[in-house]
Amino acid sequence: PPLLLLLVCNCCLPQCGGLRTPRSSMARSLLLVTVALLILVSAAVLAEAGVETHKPMKAKCKSRAWQHRYCYIVPIECPKRCPRSCYIHCRTCKPFCICNVPGAVCEDPRFIGADGITFYFHGNKDHDFCLVSDPDLHINAHFIGRRGANMSRDFTWVQSIAATFGAGHRLYLGALKTPTWDDGLDRLSIALDGEPLDLPKEEGSSWRSTSTPGVSVSVVRTADANAVEMEVEGKFKITAKVVPITEEESRVHHYGITADDCFAHLELGFKFYSLTGDVHGVLGQTYREDYVSRVKLSSRMPIMGGEPMYAVSDLFSTDCQVTRFVGAAKGAAIATDKPLLSCESGMRGGHGIVCKK
């Protein structure tokens, strides 16, 4: 740090106007002790400032396909911009940030639509909103949050999601309330049709449904704790990770997080296989061929309004104003397995994000 260099310079270098090089062993020892103390103080200051010291996590390609054989289960470090939340694209064998690709729902909450445009939908704390609604699929999210000081809105995060599909099947994924965060303690809650799923706490452990005739539901742990990939074959795939609000995030953004709750929430990545051309919802509408974004892209924080349109009476309800759900697949499906896009802005927050293949 400049302060350390300046002090050392003043102590040692004649041209700086400080003392000349010490001639006695006592003076040299005193100088070394002084420099060591300065280094320790500087390190403490950097730690207090919230400089990240944790090593990035490593992710692996889990596909056993022949074309992915050179990438399969090779540990690859997550990028610095998302050290705790990435996945490996098996075809390219490169890491991608979960929150920087179309279909992402992360942070407070920041969405990236199928068109690659980033927007925020704040909703309201302790309320539920429709993310996707289609004739055979409906996905809601439960928002938790705090009212910001001197603000007219809540700080919000997605605590849980619920998907209703097919003949009334219900899939739930949520983050458990947590006072103090521990990476090794699993805080995920998963249930299918009201029955909790208990996966072994080990990366790669998996579960597949046997009680949903005609519908294949699978869940795989992508880490020993707090990260899974869920898929309903032919309909959708969800990549999910439970993360806390850190003290540094709370300080920088003035969230006001207290010691009794670190507001554990979900970072989500959605991939859809068979949406219809009439799909709606906060995220779902961006998959329509005729969709034109209404958010103000020149804004520092492009916001998707219209909360009343997307509000539902509870997490498993399909009664939002824009609902399309009827419980059986109808309408012409559109392909949504689009070429992989990487959406990045160079800063955490997403304003001005650009997507490219």
From TrEMBL:
A Pfam short name: Root_cap
InterPro entries xref list: Root_cap
Keywords, in A-Z order: Membrane, Signal, Transmembrane, Transmembrane helix
Residues spanning the signal sequence: 1-18
Positions of transmembrane segments: 28-51
Protein name as annotated: Sushi domain-containing protein 2
Underlying gene: Susd2_1
